[in-house]
Amino acid sequence: MRVRTFNSHTLHPDDIGNNGGTHPHSELLYITRGQAHLEWMGETYICAAPCLFLLTPNTPHRLQCHRTPIDFWFIELHVEEDDRFATAEQAIRWNRLQREADYSSPGMTAIAHTLEALVHSLEAKYAGDDEYDEEIVLLDIQKIIRLVQNRLRTNKRTVFDAHYKSTRELAQTLMRHMESNYFEPIDLAALSLQVHFNPSYLARVFKSETGVTPMQYLSNLRLSAATSFLIHTELGIQQIAEETGFNSIHYFSRLFKRTYGVSPQQWRAKRRSAAEEPADQ
Q1: What pLDDT digit, counting tens, does each position of 77-92 carry?
Q2: Under a CB-based contact definition with an 8 Å cutoff, are residues 115 and 148 in contact?
Q3: Neighbours of 171 (CB within 10 A)
Q4: How far apart, in whole angstroms, are the C-alpha atoms of residue 58 and residue 274?
Q5: Separation CA 10–CA 14 (nearest Å)
Q6: Which of 146, 155, 57 is nearest to 105 (CA)?
Q7: Were both Cys, which of 1, 54, 150, 221 would link to 182 (CB 3.0–4.6 Å)?
Q8: Is the pTM of this model over 0.70?
Q9: Are 158 and 97 contacting, i.e. CB atoms less than 8 angstroms apart?
Q10: Which of 148, 139, 147, 118 is nearest to 8 (CA)?
Q11: CA angle, corner 87, sides to 33 and 97, nearest 5?
């Protein structure tokens, strides 16, 4: 791990420009004065200083202020595979906690003090101070990440708990959403926005609870709806594909045959033929 960039700024409400972006680096963003509005991972975080945000690589973010200025600093980090940094799931949970974080409370003071020491060291570096020690800076960063992770483990009221009492409840929320909207365009990114969780984490939790991925569950819903249309209506195959959310009749027919062993037309014909056969006397 090494520091790529460190900088501090004051952002005013009338400042023009995009205060954010995206980059392939991990980032610590610390608000020291004012109320910040951070847009990240499809969610807006409105938090009063002090608050620390963890931003994972390649995730667009934008910082704004309203009515009063904000002071902040940020550190971009080159993080190697073996280095310790927050996972996307941990970053989401931690950033949500910032809305009500109290840095004077037990468990948070150690993070606040380490942040102060960290920025003091980095300011010394850019001032050309010979006493700057890169190793101490990296140790402070690693300490902050470890304290954050410990805080997440011990916090009795995480944001996840506030919204979903268990991973099963999260999975059931997604199931209900897909059951009600299966005919709409839905992908994993859209589902993640529904519940504000990282797509890869979402897929892992859903499969652990249901045995299938969210997209497999959605396909099963759509195929079940398609069989109902085939039995009870005279709709053509193209229209059934459209009514059940498939974006292509070819994909629908291919998936249907892979699942049921025959084409939709053949399946409909076999079911109707079976229904017309006289019952055994």
Answers
A1: 988 877 778 888 888 8
A2: no
A3: 21
A4: 55
A5: 12
A6: 155
A7: 221
A8: no
A9: yes
A10: 118
A11: 40
